[in-house]
Amino acid sequence: MKKKIITGIQPSGVITLGNYIGAIKQMVNFQEEYESYIFIADMHAITVPQDSNTLHNNIRSLIALYIACGIDPNKNTIFLQSENEYHANISWLLECQTPFGELSRMTQFKDKSSKSENFGAGLFTYPVLMAADILAYDIDYVPVGIDQKQHVELARDIAIRFNKKYGDTFKIPDVKISKSGTKIMDLVNPEKKMSKSSDNPKSVIRILDSEEDIRKKIMSATTDSDCIVKYDVENKPGISNLINIVVSLTNKTVEDIEKEFENKNYGEFKKYVADVVVDEISKIKSRYYELLNDEKTIDDILNNGVKITREIAKNKFNDMKKRMGLYK
Ligand code: ATP
Ligand code: LTN
Fold it and tell me: Which one in 30, 38, 79, 165 has a CA-CA gap of 20 to 30 Å to 231?
């Protein structure tokens, strides 16, 4: 029997090179080998304020992007999280067993809550919903970027605790981080994660950017003044980020890149990085626009996905209720 993987991305804007490297590319690489589930994490997206129309458009756009990036609907079960009500139901049962202190330690919560005084309670309980997304399907591996590692570890802890109290209910999932273990950083401020919801267009490479824009953004990415292409995250975060991008998209190692650009300047290196990125993502755009106009295909994919996943998650929910004494 094939092992199972799942991942989700929030429909909070056009996906970035970070999302592509951290999550999507891994899913594409694994789709032959594993039973694969991929969803749109729209209930996670509403943990911060969203405009309804924009959110709806982003949901449809993200489905088209998944497929344009190479997620094959015949090899993946693709679904919209909010269409499967069992995720929220399972999440509530798990929430009641999750210590407040554990959730308070989540770094993403600390980051996001510090940006607004009036955040909703969902921002705090978000990792439990993520645990439900994973545990509902007896998942073996969760391909995500390293920023989500702490949440997957929490899902493991929640599952282990539940199993101990109520008997073997959940499989314990493992995190799967991309090849170079990379977090792709913001091009303008390389101390910060490249993020979909960033408001500085120069900071972020989006999968639908024009070739010209991609080249401009990479050529003007923040570096340093010592003109040596060397991997050193602490002292040379900008150059290290560009090296990480190349390592993630090619078969080259950090050492290969350092050697290849030993006596070359940053301009030459950046031009090479831009070539690698353009080459990887240039094919995505035309397929995306074709799909976005094909409403029926998108609807069929989502209808099929919710049918399959609702059945699985419903069984898990009923099993949990029984074990917990929630029946008449
Ligand atoms: P937002 O800005 O709305 O919080 P985001 O860009 O952080 O969005 P998510 O939807 O939270 O993206 O994440 C989707 C997937 O992409 C996750 O697996 C996450 O770990 C991965 N990911 C996000 N940003 C990066 C990054 N900069 N580098 C590598 N992986 C990333
Ligand atoms: N929290 C993740 C999105 C996400 C997810 C999941 C990823 C929600 N549920 C389950 C993997 C498995 C994020 O913000 N990137």
Answer: 30
